[in-house]
């Protein structure tokens, strides 16, 4: 057999969690928050059933045939997503959101950062957070856009 070049693949796994939050920025007045966030600024909050799809990328191991073991990915997602976020009030139960507005964009960043601490370096490709069927955020670890 002749040597083959490495084959790259992307592997995705999804989970669903339920959480509530209130879109409210401490940097804005109550009136400005209401104008910006509308009904999502309800003082009592509101909830979502979030769907998260995590995609990893890497070489297909010639022995195992896998980019990574799905059981390991499932455990990492349990620790990084389900344990801190499922059935929680994001603003009150998750310390990260005490100073960061709990938008879906920031939920995606939180999940990315949490997974980065657990996964093998360089394997995390994408975090996709579905707040509703219509609202989806994709985060690939980009921190800023140079202007």
Automatic annotation (TrEMBL):
Belongs to the PTPS family. The keyword Hydrolase does not apply. The gene is Pts. Its cofactor is Zn(2+). Binds 1 zinc ion per subunit. GO terms for biological process: tetrahydrobiopterin biosynthetic process. GO terms for cellular component: mitochondrion. This is 6-pyruvoyl tetrahydrobiopterin synthase. InterPro entries: 6-PTP_synth/QueD (IPR007115), 6-PTP_synth/QueD_sf (IPR038418), PTPS_Cys_AS (IPR022470), PTPS_His_AS (IPR022469). One of its GO terms (molecular function) is 6-pyruvoyltetrahydropterin synthase activity. The keyword Iron does not apply. The active site is at 40 (proton acceptor), 87 (charge relay system), 131 (charge relay system). It comes from Cnemophilus loriae. Zn(2+) binds at residues 21, 46, 48. Keywords: Lyase, Metal-binding, Tetrahydrobiopterin biosynthesis, Zinc. Its EC number is 4.2.3.12. Pathway: Cofactor biosynthesis; tetrahydrobiopterin biosynthesis; tetrahydrobiopterin from 7,8-dihydroneopterin triphosphate: step 1/3. Involved in the biosynthesis of tetrahydrobiopterin, an essential cofactor of aromatic amino acid hydroxylases. Catalyzes the transformation of 7,8-dihydroneopterin triphosphate into 6-pyruvoyl tetrahydropterin.
């Amino acid at each position: 057999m002749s040597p083959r070049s490495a084959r790259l693949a992307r592997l995705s796994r999804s989970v669903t969690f339920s959480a509530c939050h209130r879109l409210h920025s401490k940097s804005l007045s109550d009136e400005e928050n209401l104008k910006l966030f509308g009904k999502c600024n309800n003082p009592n909050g509101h909830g979502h059933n979030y769907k998260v799809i995590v995609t990893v990328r890497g070489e297909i191991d010639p022995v195992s045939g896998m980019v990574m073991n799905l059981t390991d990915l499932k455990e990492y997602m349990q620790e990084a997503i389900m344990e801190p976020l499922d059935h929680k009030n994001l603003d009150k139960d998750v310390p990260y959101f005490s100073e960061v507005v709990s938008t879906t964009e920031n939920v995606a960043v939180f999940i990315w950062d949490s997974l980065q601490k657990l996964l093998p370096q360089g394997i995390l490709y994408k975090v996709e957070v579905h707040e509703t069927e219509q609202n989806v955020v994709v985060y690939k670890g980009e921190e800023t856009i140079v202007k």
